[in-house]
Amino acid sequence: MSTQTNNQSLIERLFGAGAHFGFKKSRRHPSVAPFLFGTKEGNDIFNLEQTTELINDAKTILKEAAMNGKTVLFVGTKSEVTETVMATAVKVEMPYVVNRWIGGMITNLTEIRKRIHRMEELVREQESGELERKYTKKERLLLSRELTKLNHNFFGISKITKVPDFIVVVDPRHDAIAIKEAQQLRIPVIGIMSSDCDVSQVTHPVLVNDALQGSVKLVLDELAAAIAEGKAAYTPKPVAPRTEIRPRFVRSS
């Protein structure tokens, strides 16, 4: 299938999902004006040809990232998209944040890792029966609540050992703290956003209806397919064998 045919198919699928609908003109952020086709009954309408180009650019970036073993963090904490964001991240075996962005999630990863370690420790004690042996019923109740909270906040990033290389955010306006932290660390951000968002806040904008599950899922499916394709072509770099250094003996005179 040719690129032009692929693009036309994507445009039609975006249209069918309602991805072209932005918000009311009164809510429009000035930075999205170049990406609009026009307005209809007071609602902004996205230019889906441009949106398709933006999606294809994001796919190219993420495919290359996956080919090089990079980590992509998926973020989407508003209720309409959390399940879709989590399912996408799980499918491509990438970390995710869908419940709440904790301040310092990536800018203070050392402290966050301590919380994750605590979560893993409680899980081990729970599975081994150690909690039953070591603590009273009241203490176990408190520890169970602590574990539930830790799981809620950190389970999606429990495998992260370093700052992610890329971040995909659904609705950057809603998850503004995540965007600020990414900017501090100069992490490229792919933002799936509607007409109320500031395009300049992300590295790679994708302008679509970010309130409709079908619209968001379509874009995420496209990005996930690119990551999966890149991961399939990923070849880990071979670890160089250690060279044994033999001590040199100096002959005594």
Structure description:
- By secondary structure, the protein is α/β, with parallel strands linked by helices.
- The protein has two domains: 3-106 and 163-232, 3-Layer(aba) Sandwich (Rossmann fold), CATH 3.40.50.10490; 110-155.
- The protein contains eight helices and eight strands.
- The strands form two sheets. The chain has a five-stranded parallel beta sheet with strand order 5-4-6-7-8, with helices on both faces.
- Helix 2 (48-67) runs parallel beside helix 8 (213-232) and helix 4 packs across helix 6 (137-154).
- The radius of gyration is 23 Å and the shape is globular.
- The chain starts with a helix and ends in a 21-residue tail after the last helix.
Topology:
Blueprint: H1 3-16, E1 21-24, E2 36-40, E3 43-46, H2 48-67, E4 72-75, H3 82-91, E5 96-97, H4 109-128, H5 130-134, H6 137-154, E6 166-170, H7 176-184, E7 189-193, E8 204-207, H8 213-232
Parallel strand pairs: 4-5, 4-6, 6-7, 7-8
Antiparallel strand pairs: 1-3, 2-3
Helix pairs in contact: 1-2, 2-8, 3-8, 4-6
Concise summary:
The chain has 253 residues and is of the alpha/beta class. It has helices at residues 3-16, 48-67, 82-91, 109-128, 130-134, 137-154, 176-184, 213-232; strands at 21-24, 36-40, 43-46, 72-75, 96-97, 166-170, 189-193, 204-207. Helix content is 46%, strand content 13%.
Essential attributes:
253 residues; single chain; five-stranded parallel beta sheet; 8 strands; 13% strand; alpha/beta; 8 helices; three-stranded antiparallel beta sheet; Rossmann fold
Structure annotation, total helices: 8
CATH superfamily of the largest domain: Glucose-6-phosphate isomerase like protein, domain 1
CATH topology of the largest domain: Rossmann fold
User: How would you classify the helix and strand content by structural class?
Assistant: alpha/beta
Rg of Cα set: 23 Å
Principal-axes shape call: globular
- What percent strand? 5-15%
Write the H/E string, N to C.
Answer: HEEEHEHEHHHEHEEH
Architecture per CATH nomenclature, i.e. the level-2 architecture of the largest domain: 3-Layer(aba) Sandwich
The helix content, as a percent range, equals 40-55%
CATH class of the largest domain: Alpha Beta
Query: If strands are numbered along the chain, what order do they take across the biggest sheet?
Result: 5-4-6-7-8
Overall structural domain count: 2
Distance between the termini: 80 Å
